[in-house]
Design brief:
single chain, alpha+beta, four-stranded antiparallel beta sheet, 66% helix, Methane Monooxygenase Hydroxylase, Chain G, domain 1, rod-shaped
Length: 365
């Protein structure tokens, strides 16, 4: 027996066996890596999509999805274990996949994923597309156009989302607020510098302020965020209003002061008339002197002053004549001079003065 030939055959068989083992190990390793990546990739994809649409905790969603997908991966493992059978399944009949129990499980899970995405995305307007139609805001999970008017959709804007949420009763609409003092009001968040006030500018130039964004409930106009420039304009406008207000108040006070002064002068003029009527001519003249110093054109008091001066001059003349009779010529002269100051047209005062001047030298001798 040729031992050399047998040895060669054994070595060839051994090499083939080692090669098969190596190929098997490589295929097994690759399959394990691909399978692991498939499981982790599928779980990550499902969990991330559901979390981003629903807003639920990632831990809660992962805790539900991981055990719930065990039958899915079991079915995938069974399908992919027989590669020739899998290839035959794909080429033999399009419905072959649906005739297998594992295939039905996989299809059911795919369908369940899209149903779960539908319910999770009901309020996920940030991922939806919107279009304003004559009837309402049309919303779609994908792009395109609305089926009735053919209006092209675009990613939903913030205003559209707020309008939709408000119409569903999930968002409180803006409420009008009163800004008592534009200089001290807190317009912005101290930590984030974000605006705390929105406004609507009316046709007459007035501002209406609201506590959140949206539309003016009365006019339907979109509200605008308050900016530092708007606040500065409001403060300048308020300063002008305050200046005008103070000016009007000052004018009103001055008008009231003039009215009070006129009333006081009228009271004094009436008092002077009463004093004149009672015969107190000196008091009447002094009262009218006070009035005329403040109001020269007070005709009633000017008339009382004139008549009182005439009466006082007559009294001084009478006193001067009595003083002449008593030989008090200096006193008589003083009375005559003051009588002429009060009433320069009094002829008796002029005569009294002249007589007193004539008699003074005789009295001295």
């Amino acid at each position: 027996m040729d031992t050399t030939g047998v040895g060669s055959i054994v070595r060839v068989i051994a090499r083939l066996f080692v090669g098969v083992v190596v190929v098997f190990l490589v295929i097994s390793a690759v399959g394990a890596i691909v399978g692991t990546r498939f499981v982790y990739g599928t779980l990550n994809y499902v969990v991330e999509r559901l979390v981003s649409r629903s807003g639920f905790s990632i831990f809660l969603v992962a805790g539900i999805v991981i055990p719930a997908t065990i039958p899915l991966f079991w079915a995938v493992s069974n399908i992919t274990r027989n590669v020739p059978g899998l290839l035959k399944l794909g080429w033999s009949s399009p419905l072959g996949f649906y005739r297998k129990k594992d295939g039905i499980i996989i299809v059911a899970y795919v369908s369940g994923f899209f149903l779960a995405m539908y319910f999770a995305s009901k309020d996920a307007y940030a991922y939806k597309f919107c279009a304003y139609t004559p009837e309402r805001i049309w919303v779609s999970d994908g792009g395109g156009s609305d089926p009735i008017y053919g209006i092209e959709t675009k990613p939903c804007s913030r205003d559209q989302i707020m309008e939709l949420r408000s119409s569903e009763g999930n968002l409180q609409g803006p409420h009008e607020i009163r800004v008592a003092d534009v200089n001290t009001y807190e317009w912005f968040n101290g930590a984030t510098s974000k605006p705390l006030v929105w406004y609507d500018l009316l046709p007459n130039g007035d501002y209406k302020f609201f506590d959140r964004s949206g539309h003016d409930p009365n006019t339907g106009q979109p509200l605008h965020e308050v900016t530092s420039e708007v606040v500065e304009q409001l403060r300048q406008r308020d300063a002008m209003k305050e200046a005008v207000k103070k000016q009007k108040e000052a004018e009103h006070e001055a008008q009231e002061a003039r009215a009070k002064e006129a009333a006081d002068l009228q009271t004094l003029a009436s008092q002077a008339q009463k004093e004149f009527d009672s015969g107190d001519y000196k008091a009447a003249k002094e009262t009218c002197d006070q009035v005329l110093r403040q109001e020269r054109q007070n005709d009633p008091c000017r008339a009382v002053q004139t008549h009182a001066s005439v009466k006082l001059a007559q009294q001084l003349v009478s006193e001067g004549q009595a003083q002449i009779e008593r030989g008090q010529f200096d006193e008589a002269l003083w009375s005559a001079v003051n009588a002429l100051k009060l009433d320069p047209t009094n002829p008796n005062a002029a005569k009294l003065k002249q007589f007193a001047l004539q008699m003074k030298p005789h009295a001295q001798n």
